[in-house]
Amino acid sequence: MEKIITKKEVQQKINEALSSLLLNDGFKLRKKDGFIVRKNPNKTESIYFHILNYWPLCQEVESVMFHIRFDEVENIINPILSKHGLFNMEFAKTSSTIRTWIDFNVKIDKYEDIDKFISLYMIDIKEKLLTYFEQNEDMCNINISEKSIILKQKSDLSNHIDTIMRSLILAKLCSDTDLEELCIKYKKLIKPFYGQEQQNFAAYDDLVRYLSKL
Predict the structure, then answer these.
(1) Residues 148, 206: one domain?
(2) Half-sphere CA count of 178, side-chain side, radius 13 A
(3) How many CA atoms lie within 13 A of 101 on its CB side?
(4) Peptide bond just before 56 cis, omega within 30 deg
(5) Same domain, 16 and 107
(6) Is residue 192 within 8 Å of residue 161, measured between CB atoms?
(7) Which of 37, 155, 162 is CA-nearest to residue 98?
(8) What is the span of the domain harbouring residue 17?
């Protein structure tokens, strides 16, 4: 009987394949948590494959995520969110300032499927992630793009209170002259959300007060 492939085996082989392609670009595989990471003085760029475990039937490579973390941003937002029950500080060192992903939903049920996935997707993943990190290299360019995305939203953003708050922090750190106006506009985007409206508003107001003194 053929051995049933495990999530760990899929993760390991895919990570090793991509990290070897990125070795000359400064990325290293962090084996303890499965992230492929490139560190700069105040910024961390990381890649993570999200794999769904359907053992003993199969595994599924659902997506690959690209994360950018600015410590200066995360060190401000995480304690405030945590204070209001919106974040667990256990994850404070791995939270991300912005992120994007590519969906795959590729099922893996034998070892040849991993090799096939690697041959089909790895070069394309490398090109896309390097482009993403290059386009988002500068914090203040990210500030411009993030506030533009948020202000174009027509729907309620209460489920993305952290995104709104990070945008305000970016604006402050980049000395954005729109900050005061953004504080007013963003608050109007926060609506009642499954009983969390009090926490959302309280966390938002705490951040605005903090930034006003920064």
Answers:
(1) yes
(2) 16
(3) 12
(4) yes
(5) yes
(6) no
(7) 162
(8) 7-70+98-135
Provide the CB-side half-sphere exposure for 176 (13 A, CA).
25
Q: Which residue has tokens 């950018």?
A: 68
| Claim: this prediction has a pTM higher than 0.90 | yes
Give helix 179-187 / helix 161-173 axis angle, nearest 10°: 170
Residues sharing a CB contact under 8 Å with residue 12, sequence separation 6 or more, in sequence order: none
Q: What is the pLDDT of residues 152-185, one digit of tens each?
A: 986 667 678 999 999 999 999 999 999 999 999 9
| Paired sense of beta strands 98-108 and 28-30, if any | unpaired
Cα distances (angstroms) measured from residue 213 to each of 79, 115, 174, 206, 208:
16, 54, 15, 11, 9
Euclidean distance between CA atoms 44 and 47, whole angstroms: 10
Taking the CA atoms of residue 14, residue 89, residue 45 and residue 141 in that order, the dihedral angle to the nearest 10 degrees is 140
If you search the block for the tokens 């199969």, which residue do you land on? Answer: 58
Instruction: For residues 181 and 105, state if they share a domain.
Output: no
